[in-house]
TrEMBL record:
PROSITE patterns: WYL. Residues 143-211 form the WYL domain. It comes from the Bacteria. This is Transcriptional regulator. Residues 241-314 form the WCX domain. It holds the Pfam family HTH_11. Residues 6-60 form the Helix-turn-helix type domain.
Length: 322
């Protein structure tokens, strides 16, 4: 048992005890030596200012006449919790394209200090938590911070947006709803004031972002989910229908464990293939994901989506016939 866990367990035992607790009982419950029990008691009393009274013969207890209820100060987590928090911090920092590194550095230092203090001074090999970003996009740190501030402070946001499809730049004033991390990239879900509609904006295409003074318009969570999360992909919209895709028996071993959509329906066919059904609105992103599996995937329905896939594959094949 790590020291931080013993201190936490020691505090729990003493808080619950109505009578003095013997050193032998503490040894048994903490699974440590007599000397370790005395060191932990001394740390609890001298460093954490616990109202500890008693001795080795009569046992130890909290003197509740001094404090109504003593609680451990600061952040107290088990070693497993600290390790998990450190790993999550590394994941967030590295998957944010570096834009969060400066903001999260104090958190990392604090976590590492806690581990050093309570895990026997062992060095934590952070480099063994490996995060490999995939197709991330470069973010403007100033724009990202302003977008995040507007979302959390519930303020309207004004920015220039350069659409990737047309490369056209427009000025937008929006009421931010949610900041979404999707496939290693960040998106802003917002109510567009001029267009009077919900829109999703790729944060890497946002420039000259300014947080306004006016309060953002808040939309109900159900309405956001209905419009932004009911169909396949990040730019989903209201579902227009369901797509049925059949994967080969080889690909089925991967697809059966994948999460494509919250409402997806999947089943193994008699020949080992896997049938997946997902709601969709715009087929562009769904087509890209299906084509990722190449000959191991086939769109069955609807016919219009199947035809779009056939046309894209024909165009791709044409690139290799020259």
């Amino acid at each position: 048992m790590e020291r931080i866990e013993r201190i936490h367990a020691l505090h729990r035992i003493l808080s619950a005890a109505r009578y003095p607790v013997t050193v032998q009982r503490l040894q048994d419950e903490l699974e440590c030596s007599r000397a370790t029990v005395y060191r932990d008691l001394a740390y609890l009393r001298d460093s954490l200012m616990a109202p500890l009274v008693g001795n080795g013969e009569a046992g130890f207890r909290y003197d509740h006449s001094e404090n109504d209820r003593f609680e451990l100060p600061g952040l107290w987590l088990s070693s497993e919790e600290l390790h998990s928090l450190l790993a999550a911090q590394q994941l967030l920092m590295r998957s944010g394209g570096g834009v969060l590194s400066n903001a999260l550095a104090p958190l990392q230092h604090r976590i590492e200090k806690l581990l050093d203090e309570h895990a026997g001074g062992r060095r934590i090999p952070v480099e063994r938590v490996r995060v490999v970003p995939h197709r991330t996009r470069r973010l403007d740190e100033h724009a990202f911070r302003n977008v995040a501030t507007a979302v959390l402070d519930r303020k309207q946001l004004t920015f220039e947006y350069r659409a990737r499809s047309t490369d056209e730049t427009t000025r937008r004033t929006v009421s931010p709803q949610r900041l979404t991390h999707y496939r290693d990239n960040w998106y802003l879900d917002a109510w567009d004031n001029d267009r009077e509609a919900l829109r999703s904006f790729s944060v890497d295409r946002i420039g000259n972002a300014r947080v306004g003074e006016s309060a953002a318009r808040d939309l109900p969570e159900d309405e956001l989910n209905q419009h932004l999360a009911s169909s396949y992909g990040i730019f989903s919209g209201t579902p227009k229908g369901w797509a049925t895709i059949v994967f080969s028996a080889k690909a089925a071993r991967w697809v059966a464990d994948e999460h494509w959509h919250s409402q997806q329906q999947g089943r193994f066919l008699a020949d080992g293939r896997y049938e997946l059904k997902v709601p969709y609105s715009a087929g562009r992103e769904l087509l890209m994901d299906v084509m990722h599996y190449g000959a191991d995937a086939e769109i069955i329905e609807p016919p219009v989506l199947r035809e779009q896939a056939r046309a894209l594959l024909s165009l791709a094949l044409g690139n290799y016939e020259r």
